[in-house]
Specification:
The chain contains 19 helices and ten strands. It has 580 residues and is an alpha/beta fold. The model has no long low-confidence stretch (mean pLDDT 82).
Length: 580
């Protein structure tokens, strides 16, 4: 058995009792449908022959037996529909949890090459089809097998010759179904890819709706969405063409079985080799014989849908995180904040070379409590340096140490707990002000949250909001200004209280007044902490203890603001250019 199939079957294990109960009741339900036509045959072929007057009590008794069988079938079907579906729902719950948990383990490098809408599609559309297969697949197969085999045995008991007539088309159906299944599998997989692309375009457009409207790009977005929708419709067209052929042919063949049985059975009655009662019973069982065939036809579509969804799920689950904790990783605690880069190289490409490296053999030491600014043109590695410290990316060469410990020897969670990051592009979650600040430390009390907000110069504006700290700020904090969102992100870091800070152009997108307020909050936050600042506005880092001027070759210049101006090099040119 392949690893994929072992993985597929493993999700039944926690719910095996419920699954087996579902199968048992499916078996009983299928059995009752086989018994009722036998009773009908007995009434018409034996009881009524003896005369209606003498058979009333027997008919009443058999009627009550059939009512009891129908009640049993009702109970079984209820159990199958409710408990069986709940087993499927719990399996879907497990699949969704596992996939989302796996998403959380994957690094920035993975997300650099992914579309969020496509990832979401795997959690929603794909998983629903998988669980439909998990629940209905075995159940439909069991019911169909019982009805098919049971009907065939009874048909042979009634009349072997007529039973052979009913089974002649079956091999042709199997060959036909096998050929069409292969073609349908390809179209179902293409459908999944196309609907994922539609989700991606929709998510992208709706997330950027303010940009769309400000540039009057509605028509362009509608055009892009329509293109994706057209492609999806085209793949659906292929899919439904094959399905139409598949269903039409197989339903025609099952109907042909009934027609052939009637024609041959009528001739057999004419020549005295078959009774009318036996033909009536035979036709009732032919329905039991052809109904599971139709169910198997539907199962084929369900199977292709579910397996194409599981293949996409399995494909994602099999992606190994490129950054994992070492088996003997330790907890990083009591951090002072010394940071060392020793011969560090890094490339965003899959096959790093010296020419492709963003950083090549970088050596850098930062003392605990030191305030260091990184400046330079875009693309020289400023943000990369700050992303390597918390292990958002893995170095392609060299070592990074905090307080002398290689960051690859400590757990990622304990490492990132020691680092606070304030970025230019603030991300706030849908929810309240309190929820977003408390994200820095979920167990913090309200008093601690308020204290962090005061340190971030955020408390006053929060109290002016309609519900204060309980105000809902909308998706990504859309109800707040840029400066307000930035102050909430700073309050979040104040609450986290880490010994190491990273400011990634935290004030570059703000107006002068907001920048002044936030700069005060940042300076208060940076006090007595190891701080790295990526600066866009050089006026904000003049008090830095050390300024590193980055270029494609690495660190070009190093010193205080005054020292670098006196050198008259790259920093001086950047500073004077900014002033003019």
């Amino acid at each position: 058995m392949s690893a994929k199939w072992r993985k597929f079957l493993s999700y039944y294990r926690p719910y095996m009792k419920g699954f087996l109960a579902d199968m048992f009741f499916a078996l009983v339900a299928a059995g009752t449908t086989l018994v009722i036509p036998l009773i009908t045959r007995y009434i018409t072929g034996t009881v009524l022959v003896e005369g209606f007057a003498n058979s009333q009590r027997v008919i009443l008794l058999l009627f009550l037996v059939m009512i009891a069988l129908l009640a049993l079938e009702f109970a079984c079907n209820y159990f199958i529909a409710y408990v069986g579906h709940m087993v499927g729902a719990r399996m879907e719950y497990d699949l969704r949890n596992e996939l989302f948990t796996h998403y959380q383990k994957l690094s920035f490098r993975f997300y650099d090459n992914q579309k969020i809408g496509s990832l979401m599609s795997r959690v929603t559309n794909d998983l629903f089809e998988i669980t439909e297969l998990y629940h209905h697949g075995p159940e439909d197969l069991l019911i169909s097998a019982i009805k098919l085999i049971g009907s065939m045995i009874i048909l042979c008991v009634i009349n072997v010759r007529l039973a052979l007539v009913a089974t002649v088309p079956i091999p042709f159906m199997v060959v036909f179904a096998t050929i069409l299944n292969r073609k349908m599998k390809r179209t179902f997989k293409k459908n999944r890819e196309r609907i994922a692309e539609i989700n991606t375009r929709m998510e992208d457009s709706l997330s950027g709706i303010r940009v769309v409207k400000s540039f009057t790009g509605e028509d362009m977005e509608i055009h892009k969405f329509t293109e994706g929708n057209d492609l999806f419709l085209e793949s659906k067209k292929d899919n439904y063409r094959y399905m139409a052929i598949y269903h039409a042919v197989l339903w025609c063949i099952t109907g042909l079985i009934t027609v052939c049985v009637v024609a041959v059975g009528a001739n057999m009655i004419g020549d005295g080799t078959l009774t009318l009662q036996d033909l009536l019973a035979f036709l009732l069982y032919v329905n039991n014989f052809t109904e599971p065939i139709r169910k198997l036809v539907n199962f084929t579509e369900q199977y292709q849908n579910g397996m194409s969804g599981f293949e996409r799920f399995y494909e994602m689950i099999c992606i190994d995180p490129d950054i994992e904790d070492a088996p003997d990783a330790k907890i990083l605690e009591n951090v002072h904040g010394d940071i060392d880069f020793s011969d560090v190289s890094f490339s965003y490409g899959e096959n790093p070379t010296r020419e492709a490296n963003v950083l090549s053999h970088l050596n850098l030491h930062i003392d605990s409590g030191e305030y260091v600014a990184l400046v330079g043109h875009s693309g020289v590695g400023k943000t990369t340096i700050c992303s390597l410290i918390p292990r958002f990316y893995e170095t392609t060469g060299g070592t990074i140490r905090i307080d002398g410990q290689d960051i690859r020897t400590v757990t990622q969670k304990s490492l990132r707990r020691q680092i606070g990051i304030v970025q230019q592009d603030v991300y706030l979650f849908a929810g309240t002000v309190l929820d977003n600040i408390r994200y820095g430390r979920p167990d913090a009390s309200l008093e601690e949250v308020i204290e962090a907000a005061k340190k971030a110069n955020a408390h006053d504006f929060i109290m002016e909001l309609p519900n204060g700290y309980d105000t809902d700020i909308g998706q990504r904090g859309v109800k707040l200004s840029g400066g307000q969102k930035q102050r909430l992100s700073i309050a979040r870091v104040f609450l986290k209280n880490p010994p190491i800070l990273i400011f990634d152009e935290a004030t570059s997108a703000l107006d002068n007044e907001s920048e002044r307020v936030i700069q005060e909050a940042l300076e208060a936050l940076a006090k007595d902490r190891t701080t790295l600042v990526i600066a866009h506005r050089l006026s904000t880092i003049q008090n830095a203890k050390r300024i590193l001027v980055m270029s494609e070759k690495g660190i070009d210049e190093e010193g205080t603001h005054e020292e670098l101006l006196r050198q008259g090099g790259t920093y001086a040119r950047l500073y004077h250019t900014a002033e003019t």
